[in-house]
Design a protein that fits this description.
The protein has five helices and six strands; from the N terminus they run H-H-H-H-H-E-E-E-E-E-E. The chain is of the alpha+beta class. The strands form two sheets. The chain has a three-stranded antiparallel beta sheet with strand order 1-4-5. A three-stranded mixed beta sheet has the order 2-6-3, with no helix packed on it. Strand 4 and strand 5 form a beta hairpin.
């Protein structure tokens, strides 16, 4: 009821400004101050809420950006790490052929044979410096992650699933298998 009285007083003030002095007597000073304090508190609460929302949003954006930076750095590192993969894959048959030629060399070595060995060792050394390594398999248990079984053999002196013979060498580039080793496995 009292609130309706105040509302009527405010409406009269708007409609009839000359009655202003009468209205001032009817509305207690404390009520006007209480309303403006409540309105200020509400506005302040709203502003604090908005600030908190914006701060949280900014923190999420900052975290997203940090994750993005970490992800791109990791991707660049991976790209750089395996940039030579395609090139080295193309060189593997050359390495295999030189390796076969070295294995087929006769025991007596003349200057020509020594030259081939020097070139072979240089090529292997360069590739090893770039991160290429031969997969060690002979006498190890068969592992499908590193080996490709093409023939099964039987040797009663060896354990079951043990690699008996390497038919084609396998290689890793910085821990990643480029080509699995082709092997003969004991039954």
């Amino acid at each position: 009821m009292e609130e309706k009285k105040y509302q009527n007083a405010i409406n009269e003030e708007i409609l009839e400004p000359e009655k202003k002095s009468d209205l001032a007597e009817e509305i207690p000073e404390e009520t006007i101050e209480d309303r403006s304090d409540e309105k200020a508190d509400t506005t302040l609460d709203h502003a604090e809420e908005k600030l908190e929302q914006m701060t949280n949003q900014m923190m999420r954006l900052q975290a997203d950006f940090e994750n993005y930076k970490k992800r791109t750095i990791k991707e660049k590192t991976e790209i750089g790490k395996y940039a030579l993969e395609g090139f080295i894959n193309k060189l593997l048959p050359v390495l295999d052929n030189i390796d076969r030629a070295v294995e087929a060399l006769p025991e007596t070595q003349d200057g020509y044979i020594e030259g081939v060995l020097i070139v072979f060792n240089q090529l292997k050394e360069i590739l090893e410096k770039e991160g290429l390594s031969e997969i060690d398999t002979l006498g190890k248990p068969f592992d499908p992650n590193f080996h490709h079984c093409v023939v099964m053999g039987e040797d009663p002196d060896k354990a079951s699933n043990e690699v008996l013979e390497v038919l084609q060498k396998g290689y890793e580039l910085k821990g990643k298998v480029l080509r699995p080793t082709m092997v003969m496995v004991n039954q």
